[in-house]
Amino acid sequence: MTKGTVAIVGAGLVGCVAALAFEKKGYKVLLFESRPDCRSPDQIAKYSFRSINLAVSARGIETLRFIDDKLAEKVLANVLPMHARMVHDLKGNQVSQDYGLNGEAINSIDRAYLNRLLLDEVDIKNNIKTYYNHKLVASDFEAEGGRVMLTFEHEGKPIIFEVDSLVGADGAYSTTRKHLQRNVRMNFSQDYIDHAYLELYIPPNPASVSNEDKWSISPNHLHIWPRHAFMLIALANLDGSFTSTMFAPWKCFEELDSDDKIIGFFEQNFPDALKLMGKDTILNSFHQNPRGSLVSTKCNPYNLAGKCIIIGDAAHSMVPFYGQGMNCGFEDVRVLINILEKNEFNIQQTYDEYSMTRNKDLLSIIDLSMNNYTEMRHSVVSNTYLLRKKIDGILARVFKNKWLPLYTMVSFRPDIMYSEAVRRETRQKAIVRSIVNLVQNSAIIGLVLIASRLTRSTIISKFLSKWFKR
Question: Name one GO molecular function term (predicted).
Answer without folding.
Answer: kynurenine 3-monooxygenase activity
